[in-house]
Amino acid sequence: MQESIHFEATLDRLPKKGGEFYMLVPDEVAAQFVEGRKPARVRCVLNEKVEFQCAIRPRGGGGFYINIGTPLRQEGKFVLGQKLFAKVWKDESEFGRDMPEELKELLEIDEVGKRLFYESMPSKQRAMIYYIARAKSVQVRIDRAIMFIDRLKAGR
Predict the structure, then answer these.
(1) What is the mean pLDDT of residues 20-33?
(2) What Pfam families does the database record attribute to this sequence (predicted)?
C-alpha cells in the first residue's frame, strides 16, 4: 500500500442548481496520483471517520477535486463550508471499487455474465459495483447482481 497523504480542504458546492458538493485537492497532492488530466482512483478518509473510494478529478479551468456525494455528507454530517481533514492513498483494487462478494460469486458461476462484465467500460463496472454494494441486505445485493448481469446479457 502506498503511503497516505494528508491535506485540508473546505466542503464547497458548484453554483448551478443541484450542483454537486466537492473538496479541492491541492495540486501537489493531485500530482502524486494523477497523470496529466486523467482522473485517478484513490481511497480517502475524511475527518478520521468516513472512508470511501473515489477519484481525484480535473476541474475545468485547472486544479483537481473529489466529489463528496449525499451519502458521504450524511454519514459524516458534513455541511457546506466545513473544514475537512483528508487522508488519501492510491486505490489498488481491480475496479476502483471493492467487489461485493455476491457479485464475485455470481460472476464465478456465470461465464457469459463474467465476460460481458469484464468487457464493460471501467466506469460502468464501478457503477454496477457501487449500486450492488450500497444495498444493506445480502438478498438485495444478490438480486441487484442478478439484475445487472441479466441487463448485460440483454444488451442494455
Answers:
(1) 95
(2) DUF1905, OmdA
The average pLDDT across 67-94 equals 95
Closest CA to 84 of 57, 52, 58, 121: 52
Burial call 69-93: b when 16+ CB within 10 Å, e when fewer: eeebbeebebeeebebebbbbbbee
67 to each of 19, 23, 31, 56, 115, how far by Cα in Å?
A: 11, 7, 18, 8, 30
Q: What is the mean pLDDT of residues 84-110?
A: 94
Cβ proximity of 81 and 3 under 8 Å:
no
Q: How many CA atoms lie within 13 A of 83 on its CB side?
A: 3
Cα angle: 112, vertex 115, 119; to 5 degrees: 140
Name the one residue in this structure whose C-alpha cell is 448481469: 149
**pLDDT band at 100, cuts 50/70/90?**
very high
**SS3 (DSSP) at 41:** strand
Averaged over 6-23, what is the pLDDT? 91
Q: Per-residue pLDDT averaged across 94-116, rounded? A: 94
